[in-house]
Amino acid sequence: VTTPLPYDVCGPLPTGVTLLEASAGTGKTFTIAALTARYVAEGMPLDEVLLVTFGRMATGELRARVRDRLVSVEAGLARARVGVAPAAADEVLMHLCAVPDDELVTRQARLTRALADFDAATITTTHGFCQQMLSGIGVAGDVDRDLTFVEDLTGLVDEVVDDLYLRKFAGRSPIDGFDLTLARRIGHDVVGQPAAAIVPQGQPEQSVAAMRYRLAQAVRDEVERRKRRMRVLTYDDLQTRLAAALRDPHATDRLRDRFRVVMVDEFQDTDPVQWDIVRTAFGDGATTLVLIGDPKQAIYAFRGADVHTYLTAASDAGTVATLDRNWRSDRALVDAYDALFDGLMLGHPGIEYRTVQAAEAHREAGLRGAPHDAALRVRVVHRDEGRVELTRAGWASNATARAEVAADLAADVVELLSSGAELVARDGRGAEVASELVGPGDIAVLVATHRHAALVRDAFAGVGVPAVIAGAGSVFGTPVAKEWLALLEALERPSSIGRVHAAALCSFVGWSVERVATADDAAWEDVYVRLHEWSAVLRTRGVASLLESLMRSERLPARLLSREDGERELTDLRHIGQLLHQEATTERFGVTALTAWLRARVREAADDVHDEDRSRRLESDSGAVQVLTIHRCKGLEFPIVYCPFLWQPPYMPDEQLPVFHDAAAGDQRAIDVGGPAHAGFADHQARHVAEVQGEALRLAYVAMTRARHQTILHWASTFDSRESSLARLLFAAELAPSDIRLARPPHERAVIARLEAIATNAPGTTSIERAAGARGVSWEPPVAAARRLAVRPFDRGFDLAWRRASYSGLTSGANETGVASEAEPTSTTDEDIDVGGSAPAAPAIDPQEGLRGVELPLGGMPRGARVGTLVHAVLEHTDFAAPDLDAEVGRALADQIKWNPTGIGSVDSFTTGLAQALDTPLGPMVGDIRLRDIPTSDRLDELTFDLPLVGGDIPVASLDVGAIADLFERHLAPDEPLAGYAVRLRDPLLDQRIRGYLTGSIDAVLRVPGNGAVRRFAVVDYKSNWLAVDGDPISAWDYRPAALAAAMEHAHYPLQALFYVVALHRYLRWRIVDYDPDVHLAGVLYLFVRGMIGATTPVVDGTPCGVFAWRPSSALVIAASDLLDRGTGADRG
Amino acid sequence: VDDELDDAIPVELDPLGRWGVGQRLLESRRRGADWATAVAAERARGLLPPGRLGQQVLDEVRPTVVAIHDAVTAAIGGAVEPRAIDVSVDLGAEGVVAGTVPDVHGVALVTATYSRVAAKHRLAAWVRLLALAAARPAGAFRAATVGRARGRGAAAATIGSLDASEATAHLRTLVDLYGRGMREPLPLYCNTSEALARRRNARDEWETRPGGFDREDRDPEHVFVLGRDVPFSALLAEPARPDEGGAGWRTDEPTRIGRYAGRLWDGLLAVEERTGL
After folding, report:
1. Cα–Cα distance between A401 and A395 in angstroms, integer?
2. Residue B126: which residues within 8 A CB-CB, separation 6 or more?
């Protein structure tokens, strides 16, 4: 193997397949961003570049960095055009500017275009890429629409294993050593490693190994079957299915056509399926494929990453190069690592440490004035100090050594923080530009497990140094979760004495034990009352309201924050409240179900470590030492880093099934489910252990290379330390490649001697210290100059006109009857209706008197907003085109009334009445079509909109209700039914200025036949209003066209109708080719369902009763749309 | 309050699930059901795994259920219907001990449990027998608590008949402890104090080992009062107080926890016979 050459980011652009090996701190993201800028500047459209990285956060960062780079290059080119040379430190920009002037112009134009189209750039996660591509290749991708993604299959796998186990053993005698626990472990491990081959195959039919093998296969198959049946998909499935789809060359061609440059970041974390996809699609040499990664940082085998894939890809790549300059760490630290790691293989012969150069800026140390200023410090626990317990053989006991190291670490941090040491900021040439005191926030402690993290955090708590654990397991494992549980249990049964006493003790009430023991009846009465109130809040308004009212009424923040750990508790308390609210809302849980759910989460909390949503949040990220696991610190950097437990070997549970790579099978990953009885097991187990141990070396590398200025390691000679990564790094020379441990644990003296020998290769960089940190010390934070505290005055002004306005919000001020879009006028008198001016005052015989005899089936339906809501819900969930409409309405009613328990009078007349309404011709505007003629594919329910008003966030003009009235006046002919509305809209009570957004929800949009093949669109609003005079019998007469027009104007419905049409107009304008309001807008239908009685609905002058149809002129619609957008003049503030 | 029912078919029972099966079968047998009827009822409950998987559990618990049932029958000495006896003992200034003692078969106060005969069962029998003896001086009551032996078969703790004045004196001691316990949390932990009183390894009753079953240091009430994972040595560190001495106390015992252990257990230990425990 030849050493790859250093890569020059200003050299020829890569072609074919290129692999860049980038050690820690060598600027992977920088390189990707620079290459992207170069590709774009030199002629590659940005939308033909694909950038893939791992994880959502990494994607966000990459996106930002690439954009920043494009921006700075664009600006640099612009300056170069006017003769300003780029800074010498920016080699990429220098390179791009070294062209003739006309090319400069072209390049700048390309970057400008790329920035304008930046949203079209494909910068995504592996999973996002798979998802996009699967939908991009259409039916070739074997993925149904409407699938649900799931991250956790635990429940499903348990169920499958239980079923298979039961099927096998319910009727026959169980077999020794094959219990359910084992079966479940096999199930979970093989499903969790979908890319691993299951071994051992071909064992004797009756052997346990063969049975275990069959179970493993059966679980995988059955889980797959059930996933399809349940219409769920895991992220792994996306990959598998895309890989399968790409066996079709047409699918591959489509991907290849889209992208000409593909860069994959963090490539060491790839897996065989991902590599299969990338190689198949882009590895043919025609596409430029740049793979960037660092095999030394391959530490995610537990979640399926496979460094062997990287190594295979590396051997296939046309070009392999390395990034050889470290932009992160001080030169002394880089030199110390070079001395320590030089020539080592980190777990595989193909994973070799390569020396790197520190960047010019980091020539000098960045930490100044520290008690120990060496870049690499190793603090050794000496057993002769008497601070650790010794085992019989004389080695340090693990538990006491850990405690000792944690205490020493805390003391060392106190010494550092109290020393006045400073961090120096430098410019690109290494000149000092600023300095500041080292604070707790500059320090990170990296550990392997959450338990170690807790140990360290407790040690810091003991010396007064603030520390936070990042990602410290599930929030449901915290004491606060139990408090929430106690509260919910009490709210579930606020009369249970035991539950109430338990609730009184938790933070929400905050009583002390003494108070619980001695409180008198009156005090308890007060608690009971409060709990009953809270119970009502929870029942009627949900968890979020409960939490907020507790926050206020119980002054929770004040009470909690006065405690030492209060910030932590408050964070957890809010976090759990939000999770509870989410669950209660999505699952529609009542208090009992919610309590049960929380109880189950608390019980499972210890195993629940992967769910991001449940992972404890940081209570504060300012000014605290960060304690985090090495797996989480990937990609991060800190000024000062402690790695206190590298002398502990990796944790390998005995019961875990061996996952290993089989060299004989082309380094294919395999999982051995056969158990210790079969012949190959010992070998597989040994390979597995060797791989875990190899990864431990890489974890050590990742941990140590997080530091910018100083890394502090600890050593303790325990018996297990001979298997630790640090021992195996230090004494690598004594180990054969296959050895996973030293023959015996190293003595402190041997460790020190070895460290001294290594340090001679990097003089002055390393110090070896006794871990004998002072006890009883604690940190006093520097006190800021004394300031007088005062209550901050509130002197900001509010823009009270800015809001998310809705029709009902705009009209509520003026409408004395309080019309909301669902409510109805509480009293509708004749006089009110006559405002429209249709009913003659003369005692002449009304030609429509006969309508008074037409009864309405929905006439007996109770009135009120709740019934209105129910009617809407039922209509939304009814398939109008169902053959048996009564049955369909009945079904929808039965479903919906569960969520909206409402008195509706007779169920039969409700059902028949609504079915008849659906059967009513809707008048000439829509060709007398009936709702029941509209299949679900031709209707869109609950179309919601948010339209920016005069600029939205930043208003650019002014708009008031009067201007809308002007529109009505200008565009409505005096003989039109709503002609009188403009006057009503000029009601002084309505006069207001509006800014912000106009929001609303249209009950339904119908697609109805138009001229020839053209289809038109109509807005539908359902109304359940009672329009009869109180005390009079209700009849079709109350719903005759003139009455409807009056009711419309009375309730300001025309304003609502106009808003809805404008929303529909805009919606269609964005979607229909050749959109023309004259052609495509059918109009507005206000359907007063009480008046709609089917085919027999009386028709007055061609218009059916109960249906109010209005076709605002296209000119009015366009004018209204423009008015909402531009307003009437400059903003008056 | 964790009373949710699992809606999945049980496939394999955990130790608590197995205990439940044994306990319910024993109760059925005690109520007079024959084995087949008891098993049919247990299957119908849906808490047993189906088919052979359930049979395996039944085969496992059966010998123990039979042994306990036989031992109980022997302790009662014939078929006698159990009765409940109301008792009331006037202790003068210290108050009145009143209540109902169930499971009295003739003169034998017999309790059967599928559990191991633990400190709490023995204490319960002790208090009930004291109340019976003090309230009904002529009764000549005795007590037997039968449960699972270490390994196979049955174990029992028995107490012979007590003199009424003796019983009253012991009751006074217990009422005194009760009074102290109502004023503050006492360092009196059931299993730990029993082991301490018998000068056995009390530390193992208190401290939970890594990966082992929870011991008394993990009892929620102890965690609430003392905190989590308090070492046994910390319990021993507290010395007895001045008012915790005199007659009925182990005055040679320096630790507070030791004083209370003696005070609670000495009376019972002096008269109790233990077989198979």
Report:
1. 10
2. B143, B159, B267, B268, B272
pLDDT in tens, B75-86: 888 767 889 999
Burial class (CB in 10 A: 0-12, 13-18, 19+), A1127: buried
Name which of B1, B209, B222 to mutate to probe chain A: the one with the most chain A Cβ atoms within 10 A of its Cβ. Answer: B1
Distances (CA, A) of A159 to A574, A920, B221: 33, 51, 36
Asked whether the ipTM of the predicted complex exceeds the cut of 0.90, the reply is no
Residue A267 makes CB contacts below 8 A (sequence gap 6+) with A19, A291, A292, A293, A310, A313
Please name the residue that has the structure tokens 């042994």. Answer: B67
A446's tokens? 């990296």
A179 part of contact set with chain B, CB < 8 Å:
yes
Query: Contact A147/A232 with Cβ under 8 angstroms?
Result: yes
Query: Known catalytic residues of A?
Result: 1021
pLDDT at A838: 40
Cis ω for the linkage preceding B63 (within 30 of 0): no
**CB nearest to B52's CB, from A170, A181, A499:** A170
Shortest Cα–Cα distance, B10 to chain A (Å): 9
Give the three-state DSSP class for A396.
strand
Which one of A171, A489, A596 has the shortest CB-CB distance to B51? A171
Q: How far is A175 from chain B (nearest CA, A)?
A: 11
Q: Please name the member of A165, A172, A499 whose beta carbon is closest to the beta carbon of B11.
A: A165
Tell me the chain A residues in contact with residue B56 when contact means C-beta distances shorter than 8 Å.
173-174
pLDDT tier for residue A622 given thresholds of 50, 70 and 90: low
Q: Is A399 on the interface with B (CB under 8 A)?
A: no
Backbone phi, then psi, for A286, in 5-degree steps?
A: -75, -35
A197-211, A729-743, A899-913, B177-191 — most confident range = B177-191
Strands (E), A523-565: none
Does pLDDT of B145 surpass 90? yes
**Residue in this structure with the two tokens 């300001």, named with its chain if needed:** A1052
What 3-state DSSP class applies to A352? strand
Distance CA A403, CA A392 (A): 19
Kind and range of the H or E run holding A433:
strand A432-437
- Provide residues of B within 8 Å CB-CB of chain A: 1-2, 4, 8-9, 11-12, 49-53, 56
CB atoms within 10 A of CB A388: 24
Determine the pLDDT at residue B4. 65
What residues does A1082 pair with on adjacent strands? none
Closest CB to B11 among A180, A596, A599: A180
- Asked whether A94 and A88 are in contact (CB, 8 A), the reply is yes
For B5, the closest chain A residue by CA position comes to: A596
Residue A744 contacts residue A674 (beta carbons within 8 Å): no
Best of B2, B5, B52, B53 to mutate (most A CBs within 10 Å, chain A): B53
CB A811 within 8 A of CB A989: no
Strand A422-426, strand A367-368: pairing: antiparallel
- Closest chain A residue to the Cα of B50, Cα to Cα: A170
Which residues does chain A have within 8 Å of residue B1's beta carbon, measured at their own beta carbons? 489, 499
The percent helix, strand, coil of chain B (3-state, each to 5) is 50, 15, 35
- Residue among A158, A166, A455 with most chain B CBs within 10 A, to mutate: A166
Q: How confident is the model at residue A812 (pLDDT cuts 50, 70, 90)?
A: confident
Q: Is A891 exposed, middle or buried (0-12, 13-18, 19+ CB in 10 A)?
A: middle
Shortest distance between the Cα of A166 and any Cα of chain B, in A, equals 6
For residue B17, give how far its alpha carbon lies from the nearest alpha carbon of chain A (Å). Answer: 15
Helix count and strand count (H, E) for chain A? 37, 34
